[in-house]
Amino acid sequence: MPKKKSWLTRFLKWRYKHISNRTFVHVMSVVVGFLAGIVSVTLKNITYFIEFALEGGIVFSQNQLYFVLPIVGLTLVYLYVKYIHKKPLQHAVSSIIFSLSKKGGLLKVKSIYTPLIAAPLTVGFGGSVGLLGPAVKSGSALSSNLSRLFHIDTKTRSLLVACASAGAISSIFQSPIAAIIFAVEVFTLDLTMLSMLPLLLASISGVLTSYFFLGNEALFSFSLSEGFQLRDTFFYILLGVGTAFASIYFTKMYFSILEFFKRFKSPKYKLLVGGIAIGIMLYAIPPLYGEGFGFINNLLDGDHLKALGKTPFDDYTNNIWVVIALLFGITIFKAIAMTTTFAAGGAGGIFIPTMVMGSALGNVLAKVINNLGLGFGVSESNFTLIGMAGLIAGVIHAPLTAIFLIAEITGGYQLFVPLMITASISYLITKNALDYTIYTKELAKIGAVLTHNKDQMVLGLMEIDDVIEKNFKPIHPEMSLGQMLHESVSKSKRNIFPVLNEEQKLMGIIVLDDIRQFMFDTELYDSLFVKNLMHAPPEHIFCDSDSMKEVMQKFQDSGAWNLPVIREGKYVGFISKSKLLTAYRRKLINYTR
């Protein structure tokens, strides 16, 4: 251990002397992108190995009993979480946003390897989630801990965490531009040259790593046979509206199912109920099994029967309207299957299930248009692609990511105009209907949402505990005026005195101005009591629920210079406006420099 510390110390000293901070950040962004790419490749290979083993050697798949496999995978994840991880799994991207907002980009070491274990077990055994979120989480945790090892400052560490996410996405989708835009839209980075170049280097590093290990094989087998036709504009607008409503449904269903599973206190019951529910859905709708890339590719190839697989409704699939109904069923049930997998204890991401749902909805709309008998004809493969973009734009509020991702992974840049139409409409409608995404709704409750608004961002980075002052002399409501003057006022440097009962609950306050006229009237020392003089503060600050934005608003509305702070019903101190503004100014300087 001493040798290791000595080596690191010597390296850091050499670095400070010979390498500028900017150059070191650029080097680190390349390293981080490479590591994130390795993580993504490893994650995919482990998952594919499990899927191959189950398809090739397990009796379940040969007897069409594969729908029981998800509960096996969920059980393995449950055992890992209970006996090794020992803490509930967190949503990957949400936990990264929370880390950037409240912890300076610090992520635990176990966040590096836990996604590499839990996600392949979930997805490999058929859980209806994606691998992108776990890849981003693992790569970001690697970047965070590497930054801490090299004593990198908080702001740069947060940038390198975003670089890791760009590297992971670039590696999985082989789409370096979309990866950069994702980091900017989801992690709300300022798009300046200081952030742009590291993101670009990390993204290139990630995609080159993917090419090296996996070759140039495209994620989706698609060749553009029909470009944008002006006559189809109305239908793309219609698709934008449809994907917007699907995005709203997707988000609301996600939180509704999670809320339902909260009724089960034991993880065992969640696993049992969730596993059975997933098994039933997989039996009726096999394409819900696993990530769903095969389903998307089959739709792009125009083979909807292969996409649907073997279902209980095979005898009726010669009727196109039955096919449309089944594909629409996938649109509806993908969100349910995905969320149920999460609620039952599985690990994964929402990004790829969003794409699956969008591809099904786009294909459904195209089939309806083509089979209504009104003489219209549109490209089903194009609508399949653009439906994915619409769902991504709506569900995660990232329209530019959606546009560039679909354009890059398919080479379909000729579809830029319809991609822009559908994605922008979906985003605008969804943004007006839902203030927050699946990633950010829970974070918004604790004021941990990242935003491009600098004022809100800085307030979000601040912690209430950092500005609480506790050097106030408390007094008791039964104290006489004389006791208060001798025991508290004479010994305090503050002009406010919190009135507390025996349970340390705030009953009121007394300001020095309230007693100034009585202070030298000794006849009142024994006849006047604190309870007769105290009054309610103009406002209270609640540690358990108030965000820093709400705290600032309370100071503005009340006009007060000091407000009491309450935690779990008990008084803990005061926050002064002067200290709050000083802390805000310091945080703003650190954030913008």
Automatic annotation (TrEMBL):
Annotated keywords: CBS domain, Chloride, Chloride channel, Ion channel, Ion transport, Membrane, Transmembrane, Transmembrane helix, Transport
Cited CDD domains: Voltage_gated_ClC (cd00400)
Membrane topology type: Multi-pass membrane protein
Gene3D superfamilies per the UniProt record, alphabetical: CBS-domain (3.10.580.10), Clc chloride channel (1.10.3080.10)
Regions crossing the membrane: 21-43, 63-81, 112-136, 156-184, 196-214, 234-251, 271-289, 320-337, 344-365, 385-406, 413-430
InterPro entries hit by this protein: CBS_dom, CBS_dom_sf, Cl-channel_core, ClC, ClC-type_chloride_channel
Alphabetized Pfam families for the sequence: CBS, Voltage_CLC
GO CC terms of this entry: chloride channel complex
SUPFAM superfamilies: CBS-domain pair, Clc chloride channel
Cell location: Membrane
Superkingdom in the source lineage: Bacteria
PROSITE patterns (alphabetical): CBS
GO MF assignments: chloride channel activity
Chain ranges of the CBS domain: 468-527, 534-592
Cross-referenced PANTHER family: CHLORIDE CHANNEL PROTEIN CLC-E (PTHR43427:SF6)
Name under which the protein is recorded: Chloride channel protein, CIC family
Species: Flagellimonas pacifica
